[in-house]
Amino acid sequence: MHLPELGYNWVCVDNEGRANVEFGQVPNELIARAADEVRFPYLDDADGPLRDAPPGTYVDECETSAAQFEFTLGALGHGEIAISFAAIPNAAAVLDALARASDEDAT
Description:
Layout: E1 8-13, E2 18-27, H1 28-38, E3 56-61, E4 68-73, E5 78-87, H2 88-106
Antiparallel strand pairs: 1-2, 2-5, 3-4, 4-5
């Protein structure tokens, strides 16, 4: 997946079927919509939907798989998404949500 309107991005899959993903210079609104759509159960320091959260870093760590989902809302309107050691379907869910948010933003 390539979203040319975003700053930088890469996706890597290891030989154990885990994905590492990084997207930078992503508009905060897209990050929040994607994270809220996937509905992470425990985003540290988020008291509700990410769309209502102030700039900062919000993390969900899966204790059983060691996967980590990190969403950073930047102070200047752009942030980052970093996914580490996630099962491919879980990483794909975030990427799909980000693509939908980007498509909605383009219309």
